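@channel sequence for tomorrow's demo:
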Amino acid sequence: MRISFFSFFRHTISLICFICLTSSALFAQCPTENDLANGGVFSGNCTVNIGDEIEITGAVFWTSGRLTINGGDGDVIIENNGSITIQDGATLDLDDGDLYIEDGGTLTVESGGAVEVLDNGRDIFVFGDLELEAGSSMEVADFAYIEDTGDVSISGDFVTGDDIEIDGGRVVVKNGGSLESGDNIDVYGDGVLRIDEGGSADANRDLSNNDGNDNEDNDDGAQATIIVNGTLTVADDVVIEDTDPSSILTGSGTITVENDFTDEENGEFSNCDGSGGACEAEEPAYTCGEGTACTPSGCPTAAELEAGGVFCGNCTIDDDISIENDVCWVSGNLVIEDGDLNIVDEATLTVVGGSIAIEDGDVEVQEGTLLVLAGATFEVDEELVVDADGKVDISGTVTTGSNGGTGVEIDEGTVVVRDGGTLTSGQDIDMSDGAVLVVQEGGTVNIINGGDLENDGPATVIVDGTLNVDDDVDFEDSNPSSTITGTGTINVDGDFDDGDGGTFSDCAGGDTCEAVADDSCDESTVCTENSCPINENDLRNGGTFCGDCYLDIGNTVRIDADVCWVSGTLTLDGDGQDGEFDLETGVTFTVVGGTVIVEDGGADVMTGSTLTILDGGTFVIDDELRIDEAGTVIVNGVLEVGNNIDIGETSSGSLIVDGGQINTESIDNDTPENLDDLPDNVVIENGGAINATEVSLPVSWVSFTASLYNDEKDVLLKWLTASEISNDGFYVEKSIDGQNFDEIGFVKGHGNINSVSSYQFVDFEFGSSAYYRLKQVDFDGKYDFSRTVHTIKSRAETPLKHLNIYPNPSSQEIVIDGLPEGLYSVLLVDITGSLLLQLTGVSPQQALILINDVLSNHHSGTFVVKFVSSGYSSSGKILRY
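structure tokens (generated this afternoon):
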């Protein structure tokens, strides 16, 4: 038997439709208070009378008509993962009670739906999720309170009769959405109000970052973030008071203020004078990049250069210099004589044009950045040292070691040579302690004067451009490994020794070495996390893939080139169309680890093709497996076939069970219980086994999720089944590596049931990262597994040091990697230290949207972004041109 897997999100609509078809029978009359609390699908013009309150813990769908909840001062509370969905043409009306959306509760108002909290001056309190889709509406008679865990998304119309208080929560008014307060809009306590382009907000009195207590200013630590990219209209005053940490009013939209405008934090609208006029956002004072203006006004002293700023001219400084603030050198020639240059404390020295030369001195980049743009030159007579999270980014020309010394020493730091950039080292390039040298396509690194490329500890060299070495490449074995990889060219005059191997390991030295592609697919194959095939054609054309991936293959997916599946779960869903997985002639498909599932279909291994399932890998086929003439299936891991394996005694195809396990209903339509009846071209060796199974397990899955709770100390597992037959229960299994699972508990099943069942289990010994799956077992002992879910603690034990930001430099949107899931405080500042963006309690994905939005209004320059969470902080430089 096997479980038929259905993704909750993909099949929610079909599940709802099924329930809708049966709802008239289940709820022919209006629901009772108990019916509503437990959830279901309802319609009609109904009034539900409640006592002091009603706690909704199930999923409620109101499809049409008006639902009036008459509380007699009783409240409606959505909690414990309960939800209410108001569909097109339906209305939720609350009489004599407040509406509470608790943390874990959800209220969704679909297009055409409406919510009214109008009678007797009632309020709404949001600690969970509230979503108003386009074309929906919500009216509240009195106050709306968005508390610290509340998240409100508005694409429809949201209107209140009194204040909107955003106390630590988050409100986003999207394109086409509108927010209107009958009185004040107050944002404080780390609250966020974001008005997207095309969105609008109206305050019929004031906008402030005060908690609404007129007697004490900012008594709730009224830090606020207000981002206006759309339209904000304020009938009276805007008052943004000085707070610690700072509040911010920023954006690229328009604010109209009838009376006074006060922004003590001096955000991008601080030039606004009120008086009913429209205020536009200010441009920043300057950015550092191509086009940055600089008028020579005398050469800077060493102290002035260390203090940071924009400089140009033909200047000489005879002193040591330690740059602790961002410096932008625009044009002209700067010579530093008889002194060293240090770049520290996350400062950036950007050479936009002209040149900087360090005569008779060294340069050390330590926790800072040296950025040399295209057309600029940077020269060092002696050593360039890059260590302790330092970075050198070269699009222009950098020359080192012309007066002796090592040339370049990379110790824990990173050097990137971009397209058109050149790094020339007059002596060796030495690397150690996790050093990285990247030569991008179009970039060039020259090691001259008999210099070597060598390592003294772990190091990584990636050559997609050109590396010229005057003498030897001498990379020794290290732990962790050191590698020289890439797709470019290395010219080595002397010997080539790459002790840990790499794509240039065939190089013999004394000649030009081209990268050799590594076509192997085995336990040593490396795959970037979540490298899913983009679509069916991407998989068809072959490659190395991994991650938790889903593809809708329709009728057929044909594999025309070799595929290496490394880890994670790949689901190929025929979507009920009897989809087929066809391995075309001469092609190899290898499952190194993880699981490949062919849902609602079968598989063909055609002439000369090979399906290999290595130890640790699993291949699941819903229907039949057909092995054509000269096709081969090798099983070192697990192969599960829901129907028959068709191989035929006369076929020259092969089925080899080498230490692995096959679970199938039959082989050539005969059960495999008697192995003497198997065809001769089925080989079982090294402890392999073929087991008889039935077509499917009698459990229909809806969802399986894992979430952190109790301050991320524990993990809550929750799953839903649509129906069960002879289900004894679920063994909960846990793995640290996603491959080796241990049983940690058992949850009893419902046996036989033909309705939705909900289960949960808590892992009180989570750790920091874990994989979970369920082993569903029938009363007769037959079993199968759920999908695998993964969760990771956002509060890492080890502080993060540097963000991975790319493309960088860039004029387009950026991507930020290197942050685990979780909630962060985020700061974005420019080269002068001016605050451009401040966020609190946002995910990395949410922060990235806002960062790109702010950067889109800054055409060039250097910026610093910092993410802070409990126990660590992480920062990086963003370079725009």
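heads up for whoever presents: The helical segments are 8-26, 33-38, 302-307, 536-540, 844-855.
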